[in-house]
Amino acid sequence: METQTESDLLESLFLIPREPVKQFLRTLLNLVYSVEVTGLENVPESGGAVLISNHTDNLDVIVQGTSVLRKVIYLGKYELFHPQETVLELLNDPDSPLNTFPLSLMKQTLVTALNALGGIQGKQLMHWGGHPILRAHNVKDAKSAATYYENLENYMVELIQKGELISVYPQGTRVENLEPGSFKALSAKLAIRAGVPIIPSGINGAWRMLKPESFLTGKAFGSKITYNIGKPIYPDQFPKEPLKKAAKMVTEELENRVRKLIDSPES
Predict the structure, then answer these.
(1) Residues linked to residue 228 through DSSP beta bridges, in sequence order
(2) Which parts of the chain register pLDDT below 50?
(3) Which of 133, 135, 167, 172 has the highest CB neighbour count under 10 A?
């Protein structure tokens, strides 16, 4: 019987290394756009840290991930790392045609293949720096939602304490305008709880630069994108206040710094 170690080894043979992909994307970015990065020295070479930035376009992730020298961890939806599960739910439905003869004869083979492909995709994303967030099971009321987000926060703190550099967009989502929206306190809470530096950064020029019209009109080509990384706020600089108040104070400082970094690098 094939052992788990042998299975992992076989899957690892299909993984595409991170660095060649990173180099390819960086080259592609600079062929299309004019990307300028400052402040790379502000990112610690090792150890846990939280990296924050404004977020206006999906291009932000590519700019950030290819600019920072070390691996950046991004949290993604559970389903991205387990794409087969949605299909398997349909296949296992009592009304599925695969539960009737003769299609039932091929069901197990199909399930095995889907699990293998899904496993490879999940491992590939994690190899590149992705981590699945906890799956939201039965988050239907305020109490279960609070428990879910508490577990999610604990999960992120654990990743940081293991020495990961984790990227968080404190706006919570992409903001479809040039001005950064108000910041949520999660990123500051993570840094304070984990006792690690939090690094502000700002991206300018990426807004709508992945939209088809930007390429059709030629606006994207040669468009200047700047990514400025500021000086970290270290744990000994965190306010000596209860967590909630300290996180609010740090968040206000970070929001001010990011707004300045969007316009120009720190001197």
Answers:
(1) 38, 202
(2) 1-3, 6, 10
(3) 167
